[in-house]
Amino acid sequence: MATELGMPGTNQVEEGPVGVWGMVIDQDLCTGCQACVAACSMENNVAVVGEEDAGYGRYMHWIRIERLWESTEYPKVKMTPFQPMLCQHCHNAPCEPVCPVYASVHSLSQDLNLQVYNRCVGTRYCGNNCPYQVRSFNWLDYQDERIHPELVTLHNHMNPDVTVRRRGVMEKCTFCIQRIHKAEDKAKSEGREIEDGEFTTACAAACPANAITFGRLDDPESEINQRAEANQSRAYHALEEIRTMPRITYLKGGV
Amino acid sequence: MATVAQPLASPDIDEHEDPRQFLMHDPLPRGQMNDMVMESMHTTSPIFWVVVIALVLIVLFTLGYEWYVLIMQGQGRAGVTRPDYWGVFLVNTVFWIGISHAGTFISAILRVLKVESRRPFTRAAELMTTFGLVQAGLSIFMHLGRVWLVYWMFPLPNQRTIWPDFHSPLMWDLMAITTYLLCSTMYLFLPLIPDLAMARDRTQGGWLKHFYKILALGFRGTEGEWKNLTTAMNIFAFAIIPVMFSVHTIVSWDFAMATRPGWNSTVFGPYFVVGALHSGMAAVAIVLFLLRSTMLHYKYFIRAEHFNTIGMLMLLVSMAWAYFYFNDYLVPWYGGDVWDKLFQEYAEKGPKAYLWYTMLICNIAVPWLLLWNKKWRETPWLLAIAGILINVGMYLERYIIIPVGVTINRMPFTWRQYEPRIEIPMTIGTFALFLLLYMLASRVIPLIPVWEVQEGQEAHMLRKVGKAHVSTLSDLE
Amino acid sequence: MSEKISRRDFLKLASVGAATTAVLTGCGPASRYVQREPYSKMPEYTYNGLSTYYATTCRECAAGCGIIVRTMQGRALKVEENPNHPVNRGKTCARGQVALEGLYNPNRVRGPIQHTRGEALYNAEFENAEPNLTWDEAIQVVADALVSPERTAFLMGTASDHLFDLVSDLAADTGAPAPIRFSAGSLFDGQATLSRVAEDLFGQPALPFFDIGNSDLVLSFGANFLETWLSPVAYNRAYAQMRRGNPDRRGYFIQFEPRMSQTAAKADEWVPIQPGTEGQVALVIGRLVAEAKGGDMPLAFANVDLEAITSELGIDREILENIAQHVVDAESPIAIPGGAVLGQSNGLQTAQAVMALNALSNNFGKAGGVLLSPLAPNQDAYHRPASAQEMADLIRRMNSGDVTKLLIHGVNPIFELPKSLGFAEALANVGTVISFATFADETAVAADYVFPDRHGLESWGYQQVATGTSQSALSGSQPVVTGVYQRDSSEILYNARSTADILISAAKLAGETAAQALPYNDEVEYIQSKLTNLVGQADGSFTAPEINSFSAHFQQNGGWWRNTADLEAPAAVDVLGSDLQVQAAEFAGEGEFFFLPFVSPTLGEAGANKPWLQELADPTTTVMWNTWVEINPETAHELEIEDDDVIRIVSEAGTVEASVYKYPGIRPDTIAMPFGQGHTAYGIYAQGRGVNPADLIGEHFNEAGDLVFAGMKVNIEKTGKKRELARMEGKLGVYGFIEEK
Questions:
Q1: Residue A19 has what DSSP assignment?
Q2: CA distance C296 to C298
Q3: What backbone torsions phi and psi does residue C714 show, to the nearest 5 degrees?
Q4: What's the angle, vertex CA C51, arms to CA C45 and CA C57, rounded to 5?
Q5: Which of C734, C737, C739 minimises the CB distance to B413?
Q6: What CATH code is carried by the domain that includes residue C611?
Q7: CATH number at residue C171
Q8: pTM of the predicted structure, to 2 decimals
């Protein structure tokens, strides 16, 4: 549920339909195909960092597919089910209280964790504190055309709805907030609530196995709530025990 | 201002021992002591200038050029990555704040506890505090991704009417360190006033005289002025002690308030404070050794007994410190948290395990092997070596907590080991800057608080004659 | 002649219905004289800030998925999904998503070039060669090639189908040899073998359609259908359907493969059998199933010697018995042969054995079983890409001087064919080589002329869907942008021209016969001529009274398809009644290890020049930007090889060097390497990166003509060098941080 932080001195402005956004990710269906990763990167102007930096851990992926090994004893080798890992938009986000300049804040109306690029000074405390390690930092000017002139042509495909980040700034999955805003604007101008399935995030849209579904948590009839209900025995939150209260429900795979 | 002196740390002066080996029992006329200090300030050898120029060049290259490159190209020039978002710059910050604690400990706590042997080196230690904090501040700035916007962390009036976020331990850091810097500078300055006045009186002219004149605030040494000064110093002495404890505790909360396994522990507060004392005391030993070896006449002021005191303090702190290593093993064991256990296991058995064991040797084995023996404690160069090793160990300790420890988190898929890059020259730069500032300060600021030494000597020369205390030291001017 | 109407004008004539979809209507062929306008001159119907969406077909592989591309102010911004398209139903794969980085790639061919063979077409600063011909001159060159074209060969790729049809028509009427189409994808898919087994069993050389979605037990013999095999998006969706589509049951999935591929990783059981033994294992399972079911033992399995095979292959009989029990208990089991299994010398026999399993489960023509992919709506007969053997025939003809002019489009044979087939050398015996490549790939570099085709997203066309859906589908393409322009001017940056248009124009200059073979004004007129038969057909995704409005709807919807499933129940030959023999696979070379190349699931065969595909982590090893060789950790330990060591792999056909990845999921006697890197041209992002495992593959073919790409045995040599692989995974976390002694 959306809560109010009750900061002193602010005016609480109701901004159109309030939607609490969440996701259900079915690990039994995820095939690890990376379509969601590609879709997210193309939608959100995520930078390519090159082999050396990517191998050092500086890949900018906002979503990544994780896998571990349950057993490596040949021939009984087993991989853990593929797990797409992205910003969980925790209700109790550990990344929010540690930013000294309020660059990582919680949205009142959408219950999302917001990263304010133009406020970030790059202390990277939020990155350290995120238990899911889903925050990407712009270590260098990966998208600067003066340094990489070959990007001039490639940048034709950049999404104009999403800021291009410069060096020194932290970034992460926003649940495609540009799409949320577009849908909210449209619904508001038509005087109605956003319908479930009216739009979706880039990753959920692309996933061929329909493993990622996105929708409103505060709508009991929404697809994600139905999915979670139908699969309650498999449902869990990542790192539940540290009580970050994430907005993403995972469904266990392989069972 | 008669004070009744407390006995020296080793009060029993053997009949066969010459009491004059102790500074407090070996008085010289104050004028002579002042001359000695002034003379040592103005005597420089060519080597001094060679070293200073070398340091200037190093600082210009590392903190000038390399830092420029770091700012213009981005934090990618450093070795930080995911999940190692913090690296050597934070290690430097913690390390330098640790060093800076030594000054306050010596000049405040030892003063409050009336430990006499502190007298000649309080100022040398306090200068370490100030210059150490400068390095710590620089190191914090170095790690910021957009350092040109750091003023957003200060509560300055702005158009967006946004305050900084005081939930963040970094803001507490900011306030604590700023407070500490201001307070310790004040506390450095107050006892310095009489010596600045002395220097003013002994300087003929030029910009230096002007400099002393302004800073001495017109101190003439009257009874009233001394009374005010003493009151102020006593207030500060008591006030700065909680500041000292709280500053490093707050710095430790940068880590303790994080959710990362291995960091998220309440032991960090005392852990960091004791660690600061450990490295600070060791640094004082090094500085004293250097001062004694390089400054003219300082062999009079800094003697074996002082090294003995420092050595004993180092030993004492190292024992407290050993408890914290025991705690490192204890908590994961009884707590049972799988990630804490992995954190500890990684430090001991991972690819950087050699750092862990080097650290244990330097921090525990070295003081425990070398510092029990009084003769050894009184040997300056031995203590200096112990100090260097302990500081290496303490640097490694912070290195293990931050860049090595940060590898472990709750997402094994991301675990990666940090390798420092541009941080190496920049760290060397902070050390070079520290030395440079110290060396330049030694030309301008009298490093021995002669009035304090004199005060102590006088107190030790008091005899009871009837019901009165009479000084047997003639009050020479 | 017709008037020249600018694109803006005829778009004005469109009825722009829904705000989010724009319609490229036609008023007839006359309206198709498209005049390019830079995006500083926008059509009136665009609003600043609102996007325009165009439906087209993805050309990153041959599957023919339908996509809708979001554009704004003349720039294509995002590939999104066409929810109505029967192949992908609103989903895309990673390669489709990154297609825009091909359109806007910094290394494309900038215009018609007359070229010295071997000369680079770009430099290390990403600067591309200047065009040195005009398009009229280029057309004249092509026209010259079309005069007396008995010795003109056309070599094409698997997309786009409309060009293949056009060239087929041209060749048929002018006496040129029929065009050949080929791709590495079809090679590694084993499509020739699949078509052949379908032909043998069902009488039609169609690609079988494996209805995994409705099955509850999938036995996959080497078919990595979740990666790049046949139609990845469709099969991914079907996999999900199999698992969770039915709330009462969760489908069970068993994969037989020497290596744990991404597909095998999703299996409930991974059975690592020796390469080439899959057919025998299938027969064993068939025998066990037949025994469990009782009744007469079919001849196909009668001569199976269980003991001999299981002991020879070193497989636990109990495992196979359990699997057989699964088959017996399942409602709709299916067995699939694919991938490296087909790329063995006994691939065809193996496929037959696996099909026998399907016959045993009686699933031909049923939901959850094996069906035949339907013909596309405007297709008369199935055609499949050339097998490697047919490519070898072409090469022989080239070497014997039978080919004087070679026109290449949509395929990069120097890279995609193993070197052992000798395509590059054969080019020396061809007088004129004309490449229509959009990107400066290896074959373009070896050509005399490069006349760049427009990128798939800038092109008209249609794709006849070969497999992946139960509906007969024709997927349509239209340009989503008019071109790629310079940054600060209205000058076009990539002055490409549609190959179909070039051929049509050239045919008019190449003599009477050629001109009559292609009596069209332009490409769009040709396409419309191929759609005419669909107008008025029933049961289609839309109807229209005449060709112009049909064409408009065709663009708007992204194609035309039949609404109902069109899968034939194949009239199967009595495979159970034949005495199936699966001989042991033959391996070439004296080496110690089986060599298993597989198509990179992220790069596909042609993705290396797109930086975001390079930066995607491989699903199983998480390696980015490079080639690796997978070795079992035990084997590596014995050979004292560590991660990131560079080793040399030697086969009878060639040598490559690659960094080691100690991979638990692979047989100790097998090593594997992804295909997709190892380019020597194809753009700065691709060039000089990794190695090409095709270099190790020798010239051997199976009975169906497919290359025996999984039939090499290789040796390993240490080089003493190390080259670190860029892994996304943290090795310390995934594989542990304690040094093993």
A1: -
A2: 6
A3: -130, 165
A4: 100
A5: C734
A6: 2.40.40.20
A7: 3.40.50.740
A8: 0.91
Tokens of C383: 């055609």
| Domain annotation covers residue C26 | yes
Asked if CATH classification 3.30.70.20 holds for the domain at A21-251, the reply, yes or no, is yes
Which of 197-256 (B) contact A at CB < 8 A?
254
With CA atoms as reference, the chain A residue closest to C620 would be A67
**Whether the predicted pLDDT of C34 surpasses 80:** no
Count of structural domains within chain B: 1
What 3 state SS string does C330-349 have?
Answer: CCCEEEEECHHHCCCCCHHH
Q: CA triplet A62, A68, A71: central angle to 5 degrees? A: 170
- Amino acid C29: pLDDT: 38
Contact criterion met (CB below 8 Å) for C294 and C307:
no
Q: Is the pLDDT of residue C716 over 60?
A: yes
In single-letter form, the type of residue at position B397 comes to E
Q: Which domain holds residue B464?
A: 22-471
Tell me the chain C residues in contact with residue A51 when contact means C-beta distances shorter than 8 Å.
614, 624-626, 689, 726
Burial string for C300-325 (b: 16+ CB within 10 Å, else e) reads bbeebebeebbeebebeeeebbebbe
Chain C adjacent subunits, 3+ CB pairs under 8 A: A, B
Contact between chains at B83 and C730 (C-beta distance less than 8 A): yes
What's the Cα-to-Cα distance from C466 to each of B273, C237, C599, rounded to whole Å? 72, 17, 20
Structure tokens at B280: 């600070």
For position B1, what pLDDT does the model report? 43
The structural domain count of chain C equals 4
Across the interface, do A137 and B82 touch by the CB < 8 Å criterion? yes
Cβ <8 Å between B415 and C733: yes
Is B413's CB within 8 Å of C738's CB?
no
Q: Do A79 and C77 touch (CB under 8 A)?
A: no
Separation of alpha carbons C248 and C241, rounded Å: 12
Whether the CB of B150 is below 8 Å from some CB of chain A: the reply is yes
Note which residues in 211-240 of chain A have CB less than 8 A from chain B. 239
Q: Which residues of B fall within a CB distance of 8 Å from A123?
A: 143-145, 170
Q: How far apart are CA C533 and CA C539, in angstroms?
A: 14
Beta-carbon-side half-sphere exposure of residue B309 (alpha carbons within 13 Å): 21
Shortest Cα–Cα distance, A8 to chain C (Å): 36
pLDDT band with cut points at 50, 70 and 90 for residue B473: low
- Which among B349, B351, B413 has CB closest to C733? B413
Task: Answer whether C101 touches A (CB < 8 Å).
Answer: yes
pLDDT for residue C628:
97
How near does any CA of chain C get to the CA of B422, in Å? 21
Q: Which residue ranges in chain A fall short of pLDDT 50?
A: 1-17
Task: Render pLDDT for C551-577 as a digit per residue (tens, 0 to 9).
Answer: 999 999 999 999 988 766 667 778 888
Residues C272 and C583: their CA atoms lie apart, in Å, by 19
Q: Residues C285, C141: one domain? A: no
ipTM of predicted complex: 0.92
| The pLDDT value given to residue B468 | 81
Q: Measure the CA–CA gap between B260 and A126, rounded to whole angstroms.
A: 11
Domain holding C627, by residue range, is: 593-734
Confidence of residue C38 (pLDDT cuts 50, 70, 90): low
**How high is the pLDDT of residue A118?**
92
Pick the closest to residue A213 from A229, A201, A221 (CA basis).
A201
Q: Which residues of C touch B345 (CB under 8 A)?
A: 738
Residue-wise pLDDT for A118-175, tens only, equals 999 999 999 999 999 999 999 999 999 999 999 999 999 999 999 999 999 999 999 9
Which chain B residues are Cβ-neighbours of A122 within 8 angstroms?
75, 144-147
Cβ of residue C274 closer than 8 Å to a chain A Cβ: no
Residues of C with Cβ-Cβ distance to B418 under 8 angstroms = none
